[in-house]
Amino acid sequence: MKKVFLLFLIIFLPAQSQAQQSLIQYLSGTGADNTTTWEFYCTAGANSKTWKTIQVPSCWEQQGYGSYNYGHDKFEDRINEEGLYRFSFEGNENWKNKQIDLVFEGVMTDCEVKLNGKVIGTHQGAFYEFSFDVTNALKLGQSNLLEVRVKKHSDNESVNQAERNADYWIFGGIFRPVYLRVNPKEYIDRVAIDARANGDFKADVFLKGVKNASSVEVSIVDFKNNIQKVFEQKNIKNGDSIRVNGVFSNPKVWSPEHPHRYIALFKLLNSEKKVLHQYSQKIGFRTVEVREADGIYVNGMKTKFKGVNSHTFHPDFGRTSSEKLSLQTVNIIKDMNMNAIRFSHYPHDKHLLNVCDSLGLYVLNELGGWQAPSYDTKIGKKLLREMIKRDVNNPSIILWDNANEGGWNTAYDQDFANVDIQKREVLHPWGAFEKTVTSHYIDYDYLAFDHFAARQIFFPTEFLHGLYDGGHGAGLDDYWQKMWNHPLSAGGFLWVLADESIKRTDTGLLDSDGNHAPDGIVGPYLEKEGSFYTIKKIWSPIQLEEKYITPQFEGKLNIENRFQFTSLGECKLEYRWVNYSENGKKIIVSKGTPLISDLKPMEKGVLQVPLVEGWKNTHALELIATDPFGRNIYNWTYAVTTPKKEATVLNRFSIDEKINFSESDSEYIFITSNGVKIAIGKKDGLLKSVSRKDGIIPFTNGPVIIENTIVVAGVKHETEGLSHSIRVSFEKDRQAFKWTIEPSGLLKLDLEYEPKGKTYTAGIDFDLPESEMVKVKMMANGPYRVWKNRLKGAEFGVWEKTFNNTITGHSGFEYPEFKGYYSNLYWAEFSLSEGKTFKVYSQSDDLFLKLYNPQEAPDPAKSTVSHSAGAISFMNGIPAIGTKFKKADALGPQSLPYTFASKRVLGGKLSIKLIFDFTINKK
Question: In this protein, which residues make up the domain named Glycoside hydrolase family 2 catalytic (predicted)?
Fold first, then answer.
């Protein structure tokens, strides 16, 4: 006998209400982490044409069967695989006189179902729950044979257009659970509930087999099992539904910030008040309004969607999910301070909706569809009803989407309101429809709101299309400032949550189908990338001003409460004055609670941090905020120390010994008393070599001024006491630099240069072979790299980074990445092969450090970046990055080139001051 899972519906009930509940018997497992073995035959592809076994639920490709297809594949190139499933189970004798349905939560894509050799039904459409009445076909007390024939691609071309030709991986199989639902002969089949924030309650109760029932009673029960309100509707007739109305005074309302819920317990009663059947549904009281030429309101508060698109996807399981995976998904979304998710491009699992309800996320629930007109009217109407029938009661769903990007069939636009008791409004993602416009992948300039739908509520259901490390956080700061401040903007939804790289069973490798699927803010296993922290900061519901902490700091920071429903007094804020030890360990000097008034939602105020004794000598001020449930909102770090102050540690070097100086035809050579040997070129002034007793330090060939072809005019050697200097001048006096070699072995660089009038990069390059690099420890903003248009999210501290060659979203998947740009450099200690180390100190504010050029993934589209040729760079300006569909210069002011007004800035030049300490060695 094969393993069968039994699960009784668990509901919060008063003690007297325990009879006549529905029974669920799983024939499959409950999810990706809990499966059951069925017999299986695949008609084509891997492991085909022989009966074997498969785990259910699953996508059969991830079980080693069939072939892999991405949605963009030409249909004629696909193998229309079929899967034949068989499973035997015993019918319980106690189910006599019961109503029994066989329920499938999702099958890709067409299926024919047989029970004991008899066809009991067919279905088309992958992402929808459907059921068949098997009361008369089921053998009680005997073995039953369930057979399911599944076609990966539909016989209905409109279904293929809606679901199979889309821009995502295509799978086949019984990918969601299968179970028997056993009810008494008279029972409540389902309910549809409208629970408003003011307490108004109505429910349509759909009944089956009504004979002796006379009334329906509804109790509103809290999660501590306390009955809060009871409604009753009598005079049940032989119809199939009855409406219950009532008012529950002063309910705790549902919102993403405070997702209060109740249990609605329905009892079907006879004339003697005997319970014939009872049915429970978790609900939330909330009201959604789309106000014309105004905005989207929830519980009377205007809403800005801080949202993300998401597929049901996992590298190991494909589209098969689980409650655990749904919980991980919602938690990582909320950890970014998002408040919304769009189910793209189909209805997702029930447990994901339940987690959105319980933890709090707005949901756009979407009927399948892809660009060209999709489902034909007949099947579209059927699938629309299946979606709403299953999901109507989830308070997290506040709007419906009629397909994606032109895939809508307008013939059933009105059906959403006809079927949905809550009359939630409908969107056409990508288009203008009724009160809304949801244009995709807009340029920043579109946010001037001078487009041809100026009175419609604007919120792009897809924007800043990620690709590898481009998009998402890059440009978001500029976009969000416009979207936050415009009264007709309702926010938007980033594309997409996670890189969709499938771990193939035929190769064992992660495959993202070229550049089609590596679009995520996080990696395929939800690894956090740099944009995660950028979004977390920009979308923090507590906003602190950007501020430089100087000795004149009075402890005051402007603060804004951008919560919709939460007062600041419900959150926890902590300040910390901190230092960092030599090895990077954080030392808390003082901590406590800053002074702040209890700001109401959307109010602004001032946060006061106590200025403890010695605060000016600390390294940084940290501010940490957590929400009412203990979830971290953000950790802000403000540097207190300065680069020049950190470099004073080098004052400990004091050697009154003469430098051994010599020269060759091409080099000036300096040997200090501690054995540091430095060679500088006579013709170009570049650092040619560094060595010491333990060997060569392969840091050479700099400073090369980036994007500059000015010719060296002269190189001059001078002595300054016991120190030596090399002065390098250029033609037309547009740049110059000076090396100073001190007896201690320190090498100082003082450089001035004039960059191009408009440029993405400005600074100097050096060489250091990748093969020599082991790790870097640095005092800077980190630990993630930055781009010119993605500076937020990296915070000041001491970070240690081990070398890796991760290509974001493509290979490696080791985060944070090593290669790239880091802002606000104070110092960096380079650890090389064979235990050699050296350290570089900045004496310039706001300097960037480049650690090699990030390797570019294949087909970077418009996220490609031009880098300087050097390996290690010290820079005043760094490049921006684009998205999949937009070059960087279309993404707003922060994405544009730097503009250098030479006569008005720093006397016409930029400067870089560095100190190289080649004396250290930590074998």
Answer: 288-413
Q: Which residue has the tokens 């938007």?
A: 492
pTM above 0.90, yes or no: yes
Mean pLDDT (the chain) is 94
Distance separating the N- and C-terminal Cα atoms of the chain: 64
In a domain, residue 693? The reply is yes
Residues 228 and 141 in one domain: no
pLDDT at residue 459, as a whole number = 95
The angle that helices 476-485 and 530-538 make with each other, rounded to 10 degrees, is: 20
Which of 490, 502, 478 is closest to 883 using CA atoms?
478
- Quote the CA–CA distance of 874 and 911 in Å, as a whole number: 11
Bridge pairing between strands 397-402 and 432-433: unpaired
What CATH number corresponds to the domain at position 94? 2.60.120.260
Q: Which residues contact 500 (CB under 8 A, 6 or more apart)?
A: 168, 169, 311, 313, 512, 517, 518, 519, 520, 524
Lowest mean pLDDT among 16-25, 63-72, 302-311, 347-356: 16-25
Q: Assess whether pLDDT exceeds 80 at residue 182.
A: yes
Mean pLDDT along residues 75-88: 83
Beta strands in 353-396 (DSSP E): 362-367
Q: How far apart are CA 702 and CA 680, in angstroms?
A: 10
What pLDDT shows up at residue 74? 66
Q: Are residues 755 and 843 in the same domain?
A: yes
Residue 532 has pLDDT above 70, yes or no: yes
How confident is the model at residue 333, as a pLDDT? Answer: 98
Residue 200 maps to a domain: yes
Distance CA 656, CA 484 (A): 61
At residue 818 the predicted structure's pLDDT band, cuts being 50, 70 and 90, is: very high
CA 149/CA 111 separation, integer angstroms: 5
Work out the average pLDDT over 88-112.
97
Comparing CA positions, the residue from 704, 678, 672 lying closest to residue 691 is: 678
Cβ atoms 299, 287 nearer than 8 A = yes
Chain-centroid distance of CA 367 in Å reads 22
Whether the CB-CB separation of 572 and 626 falls below 8 Å is answered with yes
* Pair type for strands 362-367 and 397-402: parallel
Q: What is the mean pLDDT of residues 36-44?
A: 98
Closest CA to 883 of 395, 471, 391, 449: 471
Return the H-helix or E-strand segment holding 416: helix 413-419
Structure tokens at 917: 């300490």
What is the spatial distance between Cα 50 and Cα 109, in angstroms, rounded to a whole number?
A: 21
3-state secondary structure 835-885: HEEEEEEECCCCCEEEECCCCCCCCCHHHCCCCCCCCEEEEEECCCCCCCC
> Based on the domain organization, do 835 and 907 belong to the same domain?
yes
Alpha-carbon distance of 121 to 142, in angstroms, equals 22
Domain of 491, CATH number, reads 3.20.20.80
Q: Of 149, 184, 219, which closes a domain? A: 184
Predicted pLDDT of residue 757: 80
DSSP at 75: G
Number of domains in the chain: 5
Residue with tokens 């060679």: 679
Report which DSSP code applies to 31. Answer: B
Burial of 35 (0-12, 13-18, 19+ CB in 10 A): buried
Place 906 in a pLDDT band, splitting at 50, 70 and 90: low
The answer to whether residue 399 is domain-embedded is: yes
Output Rg (C-alpha) for the chain, integer angstroms. 33
Query: What span, in angstroms and rounded, lies between the C-alpha atoms of 381 and 125?
Result: 12
Q: Give tens-digit pLDDT for 754-806.
A: 888 889 899 999 999 999 999 999 999 999 999 999 999 999 999 999 999 99
How many whole angstroms separate alpha carbon 51 and alpha carbon 65? Answer: 11
Asked if 607 and 670 sit in the same domain, the reply is no
Instruction: Give the length of the chain.
Output: 923
Provide the residue range defining the domain that includes 621: 542-639
Residue pLDDT, tens place only, 859-902: 999 999 999 999 999 999 999 999 999 999 999 999 999 988 65
